Amino acid sequence: MKWLLPAVLLVLIGCTGGVSDGTNVETVKDDGVFKVALLTPGAISDMGWNAMAYDGLMAIKDELGCEVDNREAKDAQIKDAMRSYAQKDYDLVLGHGFEYNAPGVEMAKVFPSTVFVSASGDLTAENAGAFRFYLEQGFYLCGYMAATMSKTGKIAAVGFNSIPSIKSTFRAYVAGAQAADPDIIVIEPEMGMDADIAKFKQATLAAIVEGADFVIHQANDGAQGVFDACKEKGVYAFGANSNQNGPGVIASAVISARPAYVALAEQVEAGTYKGSVTLMGMADGAIGFAINNDLVSKVPKDLLEKLTEMQSKITSGELVVPKDDF
User: Fold this and answer.
1) What is the spatial distance between Cα 193 and Cα 163, in angstroms, rounded to a whole number?
2) Do both 60 and 148 map to the same domain?
3) Whole-model pTM over 0.70
4) Residue 281 dihedral angles phi and psi, to the nearest 5°
5) What is the C-alpha R_g of the chain?
6) What is the distance between the alpha carbons of residues 165 and 98, in angstroms, rounded to a whole number?
7) How confident is the model at residue 156 (pLDDT cuts 50, 70, 90)?
8) 185: domain CATH number?
9) Are 144 and 310 in contact (CB under 8 A)?
């Protein structure tokens, strides 16, 4: 499926590297090779958020035959990494998260020959913007499933809940749960941004002690801690971002980044990209909800039918899943 992203001619003007005061100096790209870089907040081996982005980058490489590169970049590293890629004449720098939006817009003013796009965010410039995956749709279905099947009346959401995009997915998870059971209790422990596998396991175990028998995460590398705790205590977990279905993971809210990344790269390569914020959801093939085939027998038949019906309504627009604006 082709993505319906805005297409407006963008005249690319060169710049010198290393300028940090917002001024532009004309130069000419000298190698003629289309280059795409990816910045992630964690390791691409996490089998989740970061791995999904890397898969999209590989799709760009495979389908467009361009040069690609990737690195982890957090906090103060972000602008330095963006500047480094722009100085090396990279045409597109993808920042995989809300935290890359503002730095990307700032760098876009310095390097008008490079396009900076983040996953989430609402800031734009002529050569910078964001695409937002409507992952809330998948989280809503997870919440509905959890509340319907819960035996304790308590479920949990464990993750970096201070990040606006993650907070929004948890809000959708709660909304889906309350649609199934208005009295459901959702436990959401506060997690710092430096939380590792051990801390996520500890937080998940604490939520289980409180009574949670279904747990969803937004934890990047820390997801393994969530899965380990759920497996240890015999409760169900949900996967997020990638299809993480496995032992004890009953379903996953899934992002398909490949078509979105390729379409974006095609526009940048053609010189038709204009900074914007684009929302991509189930109707675009960007979001999915996958039940674990090995555990589907544990799901009541009427619930399976209801989840299929709800997914169809979300895709058609009849059911609008709540999301935060940020």
Assistant:
1) 9
2) no
3) yes
4) -135, -155
5) 20
6) 7
7) very high
8) 3.40.50.2300
9) yes
Helices (runs of H) and strands (runs of E) counted in the chain:
9, 12
Q: Residue 213: CB partners within 8 Å, gap ≥ 6?
A: 150, 151, 152, 154, 155, 235, 236
Q: Is the pLDDT of residue 2 over 70?
A: no
Question: Distance between CA atoms of 125 and 102, rounded to whole angstroms?
Answer: 10
Please choose, from the candidates 159, 120, 117, 154, the residue with its C-alpha nearest in 3D space to the C-alpha of residue 139: 159
Assigned token pair, 57: 């980058």
> Quick count: other Cβ atoms within 10 Å of Cβ 45?
10
Per the domain annotation, does 82 fall within a domain?
yes
| 115 beta partners | 92
Query: 252: which strand partners?
Result: 239, 290
- Do 238 and 153 lie in a common domain? yes
- The CA-to-CA distance between both ends of the chain, in Å, stands at 27
Q: Strand locations in 41-136, DSSP E?
A: 67-72, 92-95, 115-119, 128-133
Burial class (CB in 10 A: 0-12, 13-18, 19+), 315: middle
Do 269 and 8 form a contact (C-beta atoms < 8 A)?
Answer: no
CA distance 58 to 284: 20
pLDDT in tens, 76-89: 999 999 999 999 99
46 contacts 15 by C-beta, under 8 angstroms: no
The pLDDT of residue 65 is above 50: yes
pLDDT at res. 31 = 61
Q: Are residues 165 and 101 in the same domain?
A: no
Residues contacting 70, CB < 8 A, separation 6+? 37, 38, 39, 40, 44, 54, 57
Domain count, the chain: 2
84, containing H or E segment:
helix 77-87
**Helix H or strand E segment including 118:** strand 115-119
In a domain, 308, yes or no: yes
Written as one letter, the residue type at 76 is A
Can you give the length of the chain in residues? 326
Are residues 108 and 50 part of one domain? Answer: yes
Q: Tell me the pLDDT tens digit for each residue of 245-267.
A: 999 999 999 999 888 899 999 99
